[in-house]
Amino acid sequence: MRDTDLPQSPIPDTSFPLTAHARDAVRSLRPSQIREVANAGFGLPDVLPFWFGESDRVTPTFIRDAASAALALGATFYTHNLGIAPLRDTLARYVSALHGATSADHVAVTSAGVNALMLAAQLVVGAGDRVVAVTPLWPNLVEIPKILGAHVDTVPLVYGAGGWQLDLQRLLAALTPDTKLLMINSPNNPTGWVMTRDEQRAVLEHCRRHGIWIVADEVYERLYYAGAAGETAPSFLDLAARDERVICVNSFSKAWLMTGWRLGWIVAPAALMDDLGKLVEYNTSCSPAFVQQAGIAALEQGEALTRELVGDLRASRDHLVRSLSAVPGVDVKAPPGAMYVFFSLPGASRSLELCKALVRDARLGLAPGSAFGTEGEGFVRWCYACDPARLDAGVERLQAWLERQGAGQS
Amino acid sequence: MRDTDLPQSPIPDTSFPLTAHARDAVRSLRPSQIREVANAGFGLPDVLPFWFGESDRVTPTFIRDAASAALALGATFYTHNLGIAPLRDTLARYVSALHGATSADHVAVTSAGVNALMLAAQLVVGAGDRVVAVTPLWPNLVEIPKILGAHVDTVPLVYGAGGWQLDLQRLLAALTPDTKLLMINSPNNPTGWVMTRDEQRAVLEHCRRHGIWIVADEVYERLYYAGAAGETAPSFLDLAARDERVICVNSFSKAWLMTGWRLGWIVAPAALMDDLGKLVEYNTSCSPAFVQQAGIAALEQGEALTRELVGDLRASRDHLVRSLSAVPGVDVKAPPGAMYVFFSLPGASRSLELCKALVRDARLGLAPGSAFGTEGEGFVRWCYACDPARLDAGVERLQAWLERQGAGQS
């Protein structure tokens, strides 16, 4: 239109009887129950939010400065689909130090960890394919294959005296020869469960035998508390050859406090990289060059930060578990990984309603277990990536609310 | 693994006989022929590159400064899936000024224009769906639906005395009632073709009648030279009601020199937005907050920049068309939009081989027409988003090379 004209409103033509809605596979994707709870608290003052999987700490200055410096230098052009060579090289060195020799031609940069999961799914699954996922689980791993027309069967973790555990035989039985892909997240969001080396070995051998792909979401690998200080959670990369059917997904979000940057990476067979490059082209084309430069700074200068962060998280976890254990009716165990406590309490058998009530009546923001699959019902998720004083305030609100509930019932 | 251990190499187990390769639908996606040409020139000194769809100018300082300021203020956290409210509001005002009243609940922020195309395709097409696209065309629009299992039929533009034209009746005939989606890009990459208002009206009415979705890629709408200064190319948004089956895709890349930022947007029916939010969650979750802040600066302070840029591009286009017209054997017409000249010359009937020879023997980087579909064969694409002196140097190389070819043949 001519810019000198006043804009006219479009003239609605009532001759389009068909309403606009997405296709059924998309409409039936789960909406976020966490967002539903957050919406229930919208506009309420003084809510203490522990519902999202995000630290309350801003990205460290040296990482932000690296992005600003790259911007000042004019890093505002397209990059290679698979990422700038210096970042791929730095990632290869980082991964090699943790998990054994990995060359840059096995590494690709992605526009977030979740984008890496989407790309990995696009690489291997299409309409009608069968995918298996271990739950409770961050919904994204279960929903992404459905966008591509795959169907997803779930194998539940088992909650017992030792916390969340894998029923290995049940998982192996579910990994039938007609299965295309196993999506597995360890350390796990929301439970904090960490797959053992022996479990990984058994699953890898089984999947090799049947040609089943493994997409391992290992974005919490550095947030691991069961070993010595600095120890990383067991990874499929420790066991798998680099050219077999294993795709490992990782992210800068958690270990470098970079949630909002949307920067992740994939370690995968070199034979996949040409096809992965095409998929990156058709999804986001590349990650911004200045964001990739920030990733290099994080890897090269961030090790002390990550170790300090993991130490703080371990202290926060222990503090929260200790505090919650003292609350009558709460059943809580210290999880070995990630940054959540996934625990049960009175009323959690309807966790969505419980969490809505908690935000409304106690100004406490928790995530309902049912957000992570039906297997998560009966639990709520508390992200402890914040300072202990805020955790204390949250526990006080929970305890007071539970006492009011008890008083009302008696 | 323990960080005190030396990393061991993974122990390859030869019992995985199945090689790792992507599924057939992904392997058969077209790789970029532009990249194939660029690779043929890899390591060669002094290549003049006109092959990519990118200006040689860095993003303006005020936009980069806005991102750096947001970083300094700590905008490093997740944002709403559909984008931060101030950017959605600013986009709504921008779109309203160009195309009539549009509220923020019809606008979503995406992680690039191509990401908007992927999201739009995910919203409406799945396995077995029929998609129609008008070609020659940037390959991404044709390949994206295939990732989702759809099949794509193409309708070719016709090249004649008036340049590239749409055969409207042929397009309407191809838009059969069983068609799910029309993907159309105007102003068009690579031809510079611009759909007329009357053609848009006819197509919209036809698609309304049959319930066919339209995804309109209008990322070049500001790069339009057929009207008065400041005039924007005809848009489906000028004709369509906001709640019918029309999804308009746009980007900050071209009109604000922000290719490397990966920031785009969608205008779509409000009834789609909940489902679109889910898809954003499962693709990239959000665009970085500091990148979104830069988008606000671009919209609020960038109008003079865009107009100056379009004036420069118009001058570059005219300059290049004039220069190329003087080269014997070249057939070139001034296109009404975008930032490419798509022209024929001796040898272009095998455009991939021609472009490889040009980069190797003339140090001239052009994109082969066949990169944009078989209908583009016989042509090459020249991006003129650079200063005239560089264009002159390129034309000199082309002319000298053609003369050498002619001398060799005679």
TrEMBL record, chains A, B:
Cofactor(s) in the UniProt record: pyridoxal 5'-phosphate
Keywords: Aminotransferase, Pyridoxal phosphate, Transferase
CDD domains the record matches: AAT_like (cd00609)
Pfam families per the UniProt record, alphabetical: Aminotran_1_2
EC category: transferase
UniProt-listed GO biological process terms: amino acid metabolic process
Gene3D superfamilies listed in its UniProt record: Aspartate Aminotransferase, domain 1, Type I PLP-dependent aspartate aminotransferase-like (Major domain)
Domain Aminotransferase class I/classII large: 59-398
Domain of life: Bacteria
A GO MF label: pyridoxal phosphate binding
EC number: 2.6.1.-
Signal peptide: none
Annotated family: Belongs to the class-I pyridoxal-phosphate-dependent aminotransferase family.
Annotated protein name in UniProt: Aminotransferase
